Each structure stands twice: as C-alpha cells, then as structure tokens.
C-alpha cells in the first residue's frame, strides 16, 4: 500500500489530461460563468496493463453554496489495500486566477479503516484516505486528481471492472470516460446504455476508447420491467474470454478435498448427518439447516476475501461467514454425504440481465449451492433463514446463474415456480351468528415461516410487551380490519422455524345491504391482487413484466352465519385452480350447516410475462375477480330494529362482543378506543344509557373533537339538548375551525330557541368567505327553513342557484323547505321534479317530493315515492316515519303504527322532528 502526493500528473504518464479543461487558466473562467454546474470536471480513465487495472480520476467540484462547502471541506477516498495502491496526484483550490496547493507544507491524507457496513453485517476491509481541506470558500473550485491500482490474484491474471455511468439530467462542465490498452492486454468492453457512440481508436502502441459523460438521458422504463431494461447505465471491461472461463477460474476456490479433517469438530457434525435416517434429500435439508441456523451471516471482504472463501473449519470455529464461506461449508458437507453438489454464482438483483453482460466474476454478488438429488436440482442457500425439508425445492429468483466447474460451464437459467409452503398462513374463526349488522367476533391465528419468521423472531427480543402486542394487532388489522383485541399472543418455534401470532377480538361488520339483501365477500387474497402493467407508450409495447418473487399466502375463514345459515346462498365461483398474471390461484368455498368455509391460497411464481400476453393476463385476472364468491342473505332480511334491545343482548354473538370489549378495555384502561367502540355497539342495539356512559369514559381518557360531537348528537337524540349544546361548544373550543362543530352548536342553539344566535354564528363564517362559504350559506338556509322564516331560506337558495346553477342539490333543499313548511306549493313541484331528475339515484329527492305530495293530499303518490326510498334505504327513519303517517291517512293504521315504531326505534326524537312541521300520527 502506498499513499503519495506528487506535484505533477507525470507520475502516471500514460494518462492524458482533458484538453482545455485541465488548463489552469481556464478553470477560474469556468467557475465565474453564470449558473455553472457543481461538478466542473469528471475525467475517469482506466488502463489495463499486465493483469493490473489502473483507475485515474480528475474531479473538480465547485463550492456553490454553504451546503456544498461543508461537503468539500472534508474529502474521503476509499480503496482496497490488498488489491493495490492509492496515489494522490493533486489537491488544489482554484480561486479566481489563484491556484492554492492544498498539499503544501507536507499536509497528508489520514488513512482510516471505516467499516460503514457493519449494521448490514459486512466487513469490507476498505481503507479510507481522508483530509480536511482547509480554507475553502463559497465559489472556490476544489480539484482532486488521484489513481488507484487493482490486481486480484483470485482472478488468475484476469482484469475486470464495472462502472456506473452518470447520465442526464446530471450536469457536468466536462466529463469523459477513457479506456487504454495495448494489444497484449486487449480487454473486451461493453456499454450497457443507450445513445452512446464509442469506437476504439489506435494511437501509437495503444488502443483508446473514449466517450463523453454525462450520457444522454436514458429511456424511461416501467417499474415492473425486468432488470435488463431497468438497470443503470454501465460500462464493463473484462479479459475473460467466456462464461466458461469465469467458471473454471473460480473453481479452485471451491475445491473441497481435505477441507473436513478427520477427527475435527466439523467431521463430527458430518458423522451426525450421515447417521440421520431418511433419504439423501432429508440429509441435504439437515445440512442446509445446520449451516443456516448455526453459522451467522457476516460478509467478510478483506485480505483477499472478495472472492476467496473462508475455510469450513474456520467458519465452524468462528460461527460466522458470508455467502462464500457458507457455500463452501455446505458444499463440503453435501459432498461428504455423497450428494452431487456444485457452487453457482448469482446476481441477487440483476440476475435476468446477466446473459447480456460481459463474462466477468463482477456480474455476480452472491454464491449458493446447486445440489442434484434423483435428477432434480435443489438451490440451497446457506445465507437464507429458516429453510426446512419442505422448502428445499423452492426456487430463488436469480435469473441466470453460473455453475462453478473445473472444466468450465455456461450460464444456467433458474426456472422459478410456486413455493411448496405458504410463507404466511392465516386462519380466522368468526362468529356472525346473531345478525349481519352486529360486530364480528373472531379468533385469528397466523403462522409465519422461513426467513420472515426468523427476522420476526430476532426482532421480538428487542421489543417490550406493549410493542409486541401492537405488532400483532397491526398484522391482524390487515387481515380482519380495524379491531379491538381482548387477547394477542406470539410464540416461536426454532425447530420448525415458525412464528405464530394469535388474537381474539371484535371488528366491524363486513355485511352490506344491496338490492334488499345482505351481502358479504367470501374471498380475500385473490381480490387483493393487482396486475395493471402500463405499456401505453409505444416504446414500451414489447417490454415484458417481471412478476413478484415466489411467495405464498394462505387464508382460511370459518364463519358461523346468522339464523343457522337458513336462506343463505353463495354467488360466484366457489372452486378455483388457475395460473393468472404470474400467480397460482387456489380457492374452495363451502356452505354447510350454517357455517361458511373458505380456503384461498395465492402463490407468486416469479415468472416473466411476455408483452403480447399482458392483455390476456389482465383480462383473465379481471374475470377471476369478477367471479369472486359472495354470501347472499335471505330474500326477506331482518333488521336490528326488528328486535328488542333485550333480545339482541341475549344472542351469543352479542354476549361475545360484550365480553371481548370488556377484556380489551381491562387490558388497557388508558385507551379510549375500547370505550368508544363499545359505545357504538351499544348504541346500535338500542342500549342508549350504557352507550353514553362509555362515551363519558372515552372523553375522560382522551377528549377530542370527534368524541364530543358524537356525544352531542347522542345526547340530542335522547332529549338532552342542553348537554348536546355543551358538548358542541367543547368541540368548537378544541377546534374553532371545525365546520362540524360550528354546525352542531348552531343547530342546538336553534333547538334551544336561540335562532338569532345560531344565525349570527353562521353569518360570521359566511363573511370570512373562502371555499366553505357556499356550505355555510346552505346551512343558514337549512336553519331558517327548519326553525325560522322559510321565505328567507328560499331567498338564500334562490340567490345561490342564480350564482351557481351547477349546485343541483339546491333544488332538493328548496323542494324540502317548501314542502316541510307548507309554503309556495304552487312552485314546489317544479323544484321537486328537477331534484328527482338530477339526483343520480339519491333517495333524498324522492323523500322531499313525498313530503310535497303529502301537503297536497296526494297520499297515494306520497306512498309510492316513500316505498321506493324505504326499499333502497330501510334504515332511513324520516322516510319510515312519513310512510307511517301516510298509511294512517290512507286508513291503514296498523301498518302505519308498525312503520312509526321502527322510526322511533331508530331515532327516539323522530316525533319531535315532525311535530315542528305540524305533522303527527
């Protein structure tokens, strides 16, 4: 190792400076130009000479800002000391016409060993020459010229190099990449980039290849394209003749004869493996587990370790090693077991681009073992985690790999397929036996396998109990939705390399009312798959899609249905076994004895999908998802208001919900969400008193705007207008800008007989203007139309429609004010008709028109509109109440009483609402 600082570039006579740009007189002028780039010069030159690679760099960087000045004040130059030297040619500061030698007076770089990759379990052995450059000012140009030499004995005299090339939009004052060689050292070279025209030129006894950088902006590529399309621009050089040349050059490094000495500890481990019962496959799996579980990963890249693996005995003694060390250890064990095995070089990130690259060892960053048992290839990676017998047939997505053989070998493609076992295996037992609209009670279990399990297991040791529970809850929230948990747990099993999460909790109902029947999804994983490759640009039409690396997920749901499943049916495709969009999809659905049983499995296969197949694959996935199964409830559904609160509370599902909430609250009494969630449940089943008690407790723990507004509404519903107004004011105090809080306070002021105060509050908001102005004007019209002068309300609506005729919802507001307050009925029908025509299916317009029919005494027409509304929205209590009133007017009193009873069950204040309009049963 040498670190020197000669004053002249003549120390490396074969390099030529960049014409003009190196001229010292030109540098100050360039620095003074308007808006110059930060990097003035990037001159990178390489020379292949007698099995050695010289790299020369000339870099001039402008300190254009205080931030850039900070970066330039300290320089660092890394190099591998076991491969060659670092030579400093010049370090200077250019300030106007002045050139300041930063190496004057014997100043030197300090050599450090800085292992920056330790957190990633890497020891590189790289040394760093560092210097604090003194006296640099904003506007200065710092120029550094240096060379490194490199010769790797493991390459058998070969030279190789891979350089990432800068490309636009990066700006440079001047940039060049230059390669020199003579005929005896002639390397092969390749530019993996677009828009570069570079041709070798003979100059005396040397050949020169040179091209400017930055390159032109490289073509944009879709993110899901294979890496041979998306890799950064690269410049490669190599003296290897072929991939077979690379293979046989690496072969001596992985010779295993005599590496396990008789009587050594490692020989004892081999003897144990030989003594195991079972097939060669069983023993290979045991050997893999031994290497994975008992030798921790640590990348060692020092003292020739970039390509030279650590010996197995040393690895076993140290109990750590990188991919090379683990591969050599596993290889020795497998061959000791009489199993055919060989190392294979792989690229962990650019594997599918390897066939397009120059043959070099630098094309690979990983090595693993290929074992052949009964004619089948097994890809065994000692750096993996948690592999077991069931998994050793899984295929990594490394694209093309290179077998390492004494005779040499060509590239070999790994054909990926679905993994043998799911990495994540989720089972959910759910109780929805009481009613569709009650919360779902569930027991969930998730088993994680392999590398994910090992990583989680390692992380668990760094978590306290609270954080562990939050991790489990977060996982299941993705599976069952937002939930309250009464119990969660984690167990680990090193023997099977699994981590198991368990949870008991309650979550919101997934049932939805559509076309007068309850429906819920019976599919999960398959519906979540997205496959939407973008190939709209003409240049992308022929680019294939790289699908996800192999990973499998299984989901099993066992659900107890309401009413013992009577009248429930499954709609959609119950059985599925297809390969679509790079996924193997499997599903079975069964409904028997009131229990729905769903099992799904999705496996990403890691395959590449050709461009001409993309439309068909997208269509196939869309078809599969369109045919996903759903559970459909009985043709005549029941509703919670059909039952008394006492009856609902006695159902097993309700009791289980209560018990779960109680345990969840007891587990964390400082968490307000347990109380607020239970309050929602209790309110929904009609237990208003206890629902309010829970809200009181939630607000006591964590008062916030939403909780105050929620309690305000519920207090109002139970007749406590004073309490509702107080809560609204508290919400507004917490967030004065909250429109919901302003609306709540104004409404309850009006309910308290203080309409002028309410209007004054809203007028103040209208005066502020802005985007909320129209909403506040509409709200003012609502207040006046409900509690005050309907004529003034109509004036406001008229003015809004004149200003913004596109606000079509105003027709419904005007229709409702006229009908509910029984004014201007002669023009009301025009408003109501327009509202219905422009409503796009909204039931509000029909409800408003029904009020007008009622005022006009046309009860049959009113009932016709209300029938439509109630059929579509059975829980719309104002429409049910008016339907009851209309039925009374038609002489169908018993039917009317039933409707009014339902409306009162949903809204205890419904009579007071309509009494304000003079409407009573």
UniProtKB/TrEMBL annotation:
Database matches in Pfam families: DUF3857
InterPro entries in the record: DUF3857, Papain-like_cys_pep_sf, TPR-like_helical_dom_sf
Location of the DUF3857 domain: 60-213
Gene3D superfamilies attached to this UniProt entry: 2.60.40.3140, 3.10.620.30, Tetratricopeptide repeat domain
Protein name per the record: Tetratricopeptide (TPR) repeat protein
Organism encoding this protein: Sphingobium scionense
